[in-house]
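Chain X:
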Amino acid sequence: MTPSTVTEPSPAPGVLSVLTARDWRLFGLCAAATVAAGVLDVVPAGTVVPFVVAAVALALLASLVGHAVDALGDRLGAGATGVVQSALGNLPELFVCIFALKAGLYDVVRAALVGSVLANVLLVLGLAFVVGGLKHGTQRFGKGRARTISLMLVLAVFAWLIPSLTAALHTPAAGHEWGLSVVTAFLLLGLFGLSLPAAVGRGEAAEADGVPAGSAEASAEAAAQAPAPAGHTVRHDPASTAAADAEHVSQWPLALAIGVLAVAGVGAAFVSEWFVAALEPAMDAVGLSEAFAGLVVVAIAGNAVENVVGIQLAARNQADYALSVILQSPLQIALVLAPVLVLVAPLVGATFTLVLSPLLIVALLLAALVSVLVVNDGESTWFEGATLLVLYVLIAASFWWG
């Protein structure tokens, strides 16, 4: 009888062996920028340089968070990954706003929250439409998922604006804006909690994650989530996954991804404090108003992940994923970030309400309504993107003087 041959399982690769040259470059840039921001926070180096270095460090750390969350994609599922990526992608902005509240920069925080919505819905989505349209022509996407996200954004914005309207219209609730803001915060957080089961479910149809049924992306996702037969190893076709491997880091071990998230989160907390400390001197030196600094500078620096990832997805003709990533961020800002700041502000000795100036109210309403209009037909062109960019520039310019 011929003895059976037993195949020994190959040892798992080391944690560091899966890192690519691109990963090491990102680690090195993040470390160098963080150290430089810390040094410039102590050593006098003018008024603008420390701010610029801190902003670059913040953007790099946000990008690192995005890479680490991307590495969790195969384990969490596409829906859960989108939610986690948006939540952790907004983590640097949360830290910036908390330190800004502690410094008494209330106008900067309010403008930054509105600016984050504007930046994603008008600037980033506009750039994604322009890049995708010029490269691939008219791009089409599943209307269901995009329409749901945009409608939720409109409803969240409407709820967010109730405290502002009570103050502006001098209703009997005027003078109780903080209490109304707290009630609104709890209700919005509750609404976000209710939306999570549908957002993170792995067993939903492909459309729930913005991928049309029958598309290549849907097939690839289904294949990735299917369990492998016992004793077999799933191997993906290199030709079909080369583009994805070039952009993603899904081969990172779980321990490495979690470790990077923890380190990047701690680094973002420190850099955010240095960023806010350098913000006021830079505004005085350049002549920026608090409203413009929050609406444009802080909002763009705090949303670096969505700014880059959404445009890259559109350039790869993955319009469904691009829309999901771009629109999830402002939705979580309205449902989570703004309410959390209302509840956390007393812990840093501040009182923060959701009361906005009339121009911020109008800008926020325009962004929410535009998000519905641009996804209603299920397709995008470069010209639609250009109109979004023009609207963003006009709104930003209106806040230059305050």
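Chain Y:
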Amino acid sequence: MTVRTRTVTIPSEGATLTGEVFLPADAADGARLPAVVVTGSWTTVRQQMSNLYARHLAEQGYLALTFDFRGYGDSEGEPRDYESPELKIRDIHNAVTFLASYPLADSGRIGALAVCASSGYTAVNAATDARVRSMALIAPWLHDADLVQAIYGGPEGVRQRIEAGERATTLWRETGQVEYVPAVSATDPGAAMYGPFDYYLDRDRGAVPQWGNRFAIMAWPGWLAFDPIAVAPEIQTPTLLVHSEDAAVPDGARRFHADLAGAKQIIWTTGEQFDFYDREPAVKAAVDAVAAHFASTL
């Protein structure tokens, strides 16, 4: 199915976010379509995995909205490239508000699809936002304090990052200067993600021109303290998780799924984490599962 896109602006607490609406080409004027907010991994812009999944959803007959979080891509907001769970949760909430009044969207059938790290942000919003009627999390990165230590080098690795973040926060408050490290690097061990992460480093995949490949060091304390698993018992929203044992933090997905209060399903498929961002058959498996989930819950 052919897909149409429209560039839109979304107000978010004084910052204007830039987004895109993906529509089935045959959507009639005045149509009221089930609508989905689509978000991607941490540090990313909409031209990466978000737009890919939004296009697939539009091909399935949904209206899909992607956007750049404040401080990222084409959106306003300072500081730039600041991975703040609190601010990103609020941006998702405001994107839902935008969809609720969008002329082609059915305000009673709003869902959310999140890939990787934004799964936690989307989940926290859904815990208190009854307008989100259904949620799908693809290769979700969901951590708690125990998993943070396992991922980031134990108590000492966590402590070092928190202290570096606190120093960077003090510098920013006193001078306005933001200290950065690469978001991803195969050569710099100080990067937020250090390793041969081809998705982000390959221009034919995720190394798009709009992505800055920066991580504000002052984001570490908020990121490391973020615990979306803790909100699972508060979530009544029907929720689907699609994950793989070879993808990131499968134990976090299991813990989150076990604690969900509402209708829930977890589908274990195959693929590494970055396969779910843009590679087949991982993307098709995820899209098929998500389409079936939304068809029954929106």
